């Protein structure tokens, strides 16, 4: 008969797998529609470029509503909020699949983004509270892979579904997954809450929302060929003012919508600082690679998608050895050395040309997948290694907000870097060449390299309790 500890470990494992599955569903919907946009545009009778509204609306909603997830979990309980988030996300997926106009689709994506905004940090919080410190490395490794895998397999999967069926099935596929997730949530996640009397910080929510929305939209405009620079300037100014005001407010509010106290923990602060620059660089790659293969190299969407699967293979392969590597070398050494390797693997993509053998392209992408997977998992684990249980809710909300922001910023940085390449070579948006992508990947690699500098501030035994580094082998 299983002991109480065994039952607890089994329940913890089920929660980890449930949260990982929900994260995958949420992350996949952020990228899978990219290859389906032309067909969707025909369905809505609009120009394909106008369909970017569907992606932007989703990412912006995530960034805006994630900050209130910690308050919602504390006020209403983990099971209530996580289960409701899955239900809203699933229902919104059905609405996305049945819409017939672009405005209706954008509205459904906003609703879907609200559900996704609750799923990400609250699900992570459920894992953090259910997992002992010694099991945190494995748990974080499992729930990290959706953020690595979904952006890679999303475009080819979306292209396959669109080619052989209809783009609407991209959203219908969420229905069975959502129903299963909802049932498992009701069965295995406790409805724990930290502070049911915590007041909602409306000023903080408004200021954070304005800062996120204006800055993300401004960066998106910069990446366009027809950017309105006056509008960009207004948005940047508004975003900076709102950002400074929100920082001032959050540090002084008695019950802020996002608790910044976890930033006093050195490991968390470093993971949010230099780690965010790395995530920006990594998030630019899934945007640039399909464009380079299709526009620069002349491959079709399916061939492009198959090549990007090499990154996915590298991600999964590294998962097999991440824990032993962390135990052997510790967080600081791994993050610094592997961070440099990850940055150079991005820069190495600048050497690829249409005449490069496919096998060599696959090797470069596979190596990049290995290094980015290790860095991604190490940063996410280090984030919560030393955060006290009482601060987990605020830390999770802040981490998830920055994660979504860096994903959106990463795409924008990729677009801006590509525009720099076009400018240097005298090209316009209609005559992009392979050499433009070379410049873009060099810039993205440099951004990732800058993020490594912050990691030198870590102590040699940072996060040792979680990594097991320095412990005698038994």
TrEMBL record:
Protein name per UniProt: Drug resistance transporter EmrB/QacA subfamily
Subcellular location(s) per record: Membrane
Coiled coil: none
UniProt keyword Transferase, yes or no: no
Keywords carried by this UniProt record: Membrane, Transmembrane, Transmembrane helix
InterPro entries referenced in this protein's UniProt entry, alphabetically: MFS (IPR011701), MFS_dom (IPR020846), MFS_trans_sf (IPR036259)
Residue ranges of every copy of the Major facilitator superfamily (MFS) profile domain listed in the record: 15-463
Chain ranges passing through the membrane: 12-35, 55-73, 80-100, 106-127, 139-157, 169-188, 200-219, 231-248, 268-289, 301-322, 334-353, 359-385, 397-417, 437-458
GO MF term set: transmembrane transporter activity
Membrane topology recorded in Swiss-Prot or TrEMBL: Multi-pass membrane protein
Domain of life: Bacteria
GO CC, one annotated term: plasma membrane
